[in-house]
């Protein structure tokens, strides 16, 4: 992919995330499915004690398309860490449709919630303040696990004391450590290997604006 194509591709991706009715429908669909899986797991366990839900934050709970749109107008800002640090501290994201109802249901069923994100640890208080302002439950320092150890290690930390019944995220490394840093071809192979988990205990949210696939070459049809 050439450098001149990246801004155009990002603009289309950000427009989809921010403006399309389809992405809102998909997000609601994800939370509807997550709700069904949550209720089934709690019923099977006879209650929520000892059970946990792990969720990514950005583009899974929070809609950050406003800062993406802002960054589009400034060359080099899209991947600039300072941009995202400022957004984490001072931004005003809103909840993705369905998030509030799902997490309040999990809380009412006695399920422990962990917010596992690669947001910057230095902005942990700001992230906690944002999640709290938006009315999400169980937003405590020991339940908000931010960037530092790999997500696989943070998941293992939770699994020492809880049975994880559901994971929510928008990139595949939100679910399993094997995806972190894997080449795109290997990600496809791993997705096939884990096919039975998608829609069961792994719920993947749409995010057209982030992923290693954005650098992949297109394979156009070649008519005879």
From TrEMBL:
Keywords: Signal
Lineage: superkingdom: Bacteria
Protein's UniProt keywords contain Signal: yes
InterPro entries according to UniProt: Acid_phosphat_B-like, HAD-like_sf, HAD_sf
Keyword S-adenosyl-L-methionine in annotation: no
Record's protein name: 5'-nucleotidase
UniProt organism field: Paracoccus gahaiensis
